[in-house]
Amino acid sequence: MDSTLKTPLDRAKFKDPDRTVKGERRARVRLKSVETLWFNTGTLCNLTCGNCYIESSPSNDRLVYISHREVADYLDEVEYEGLGTRTVGFTGGEPFMNREIIAILEETLGRGYEALVLTNAMRPMMKLADELLALRARYGRRLTIRVSLDHYTQALHEAERGPRSWRPAVKGLAWLAGNGFAVNVAGRLFSAEPEPEVRAGFGALFDALGIDLDPADPWQLVLFPEMDASLDVPEITDACWGLLNASPEGVMCASSRMVVKRKGTDHPAVLACTLLPYEPEFELGRHLREAMGEVKLNHPHCARFCVLGGAACSG
Questions:
Q1: Would you give the distance in Å from CA 77 to the centre of its chain?
Q2: CB 108 within 8 A of CB 73
Q3: Which has the closest alpha carbon to 261: 43, 34, 115, 109?
Q4: Through-space distance between the first and last CA atoms of the chain, rounded to whole angstroms
Q5: Who's near 197: CB < 8 A, 6+ residues apart?
Q6: How many whole angstroms separate alpha carbon 111 and alpha carbon 93?
Q7: Angle ∠(266,313,53) on CA atoms, nearest 5
Q8: Which of 105, 166, 181, 314 has its CB surrounded by the most CB atoms within 10 Å?
Q9: What tens-digit pLDDT sequence spans the chain (315 residues)?
Q10: DSSP secondary-structure letter at 116?
């Protein structure tokens, strides 16, 4: 099962939710608990990246801003259903462009949850510096900010995120660390360098910035595999767990769900995971109680990112 194949995806793959192209039973993942509940705050972003899995941009509003009230309703459901959620994550787009994000974070942290926000740490975040400092003062390190730096060099980061995106991001990261926020960094394995080399490069960057992050710690520096659904990847079958010495319990959809609000709809919906926001097959219902069933790993991202790549968006 070679996850590094560069040939185009066989179009016959990932068609039947129950069987692979070879007729084998497709792997399924059963939900253990909703340890992490994700909210997509909206797909609008201040950047247009070269390979954004969710196609965020200044004009993409396919997923509209979720409201404070809607988030609170889902947190009510978590508590009513006894789902055992510990962390509430927020992704985008750029979450700090949502005008209700501070109220949403106050609601989340005030209920005792850990909050994790994924951001590019640029101007939308810095415009809320005073409000974020107030949250840090009240809730300390229960609020974690994850900063997206695609590479430890300006050239490769900006090759993905565009000109003039490096300095504001690095400045925002340094501001967070310097003001005592719990912070980590999300990078990407897209430069053809071995992972140890990438981690060493980020370590040198952290040292240069005076930021106390351990690049060897997979939580402090999260390195995501590249996601390209057009490239070939093996389909995951029941037999793969044993062959890979892996467990379905280690896959993201065994312990998390994501809430989105689609443009033109009256209410949000619950999805199987953060990576497949536009795939109808992975929409599980309006309420969390409807989203407790198993997930069939019927998408290239399931194989490349989660099973073969071993990646997860939360710790």
A1: 22
A2: no
A3: 43
A4: 25
A5: none
A6: 25
A7: 65
A8: 105
A9: 344 447 898 989 999 999 999 999 999 999 999 999 999 999 999 999 988 889 999 999 999 999 999 999 999 999 999 999 999 999 999 999 999 999 999 999 999 999 999 999 999 999 999 999 999 999 999 999 999 999 999 999 999 999 999 999 999 999 999 999 999 999 999 999 999 999 999 999 999 999 999 999 999 999 998 777 788 899 999 999 988 888 999 999 999 999 999 999 999 999 999 989 999 999 999 999 999 999 999 999 998 888 887 655 554
A10: E
Q: Please state, in angstroms and as integers, the Cα–Cα distance from residue 44 to each residue in 137, 139, 239, 277, following that order.
A: 29, 28, 40, 14
Residue 107 in tokens: 């609601």
Give the residues across from 182 on adjacent strands.
Answer: 144
Closest CA to 37 of 284, 225, 266: 284
Distance of alpha carbon 176 from alpha carbon 89, whole angstroms: 18
226 vs 8, 83, 229, 302, CA distance in Å?
Answer: 15, 31, 10, 12
- Two tokens, residue 82: 């006894």
Q: How far apart are CA 154 and CA 171, in angstroms?
A: 13
Do residues 163 and 201 touch, judged by C-beta distance below 8 A?
no
Query: Side chain identity at 304, as an amino acid letter?
Result: R
Give the helix ranges, DSSP H, for the chain.
Answer: 68-81, 101-110, 123-126, 129-139, 154-161, 166-178, 195-209, 238-244, 300-301
How is residue 243 written in tokens? Answer: 């062959």
> Which own/partner contact pairs does 6-14 have at CB distance under 8 Å and 24+ positions apart?
6/231, 6/232, 7/231, 7/232, 8/230, 8/231, 8/232, 9/229, 9/230, 9/231, 9/232, 9/233, 9/300, 10/232, 13/232, 13/235, 13/300, 14/235, 14/298, 14/299, 14/300
Both tokens of 121, joined, read 């740490």
Cα 120 from chain centroid (whole Å): 13
Alpha carbon distance 184, 173 (integer Å): 9
* 92 token code pair: 């985008």
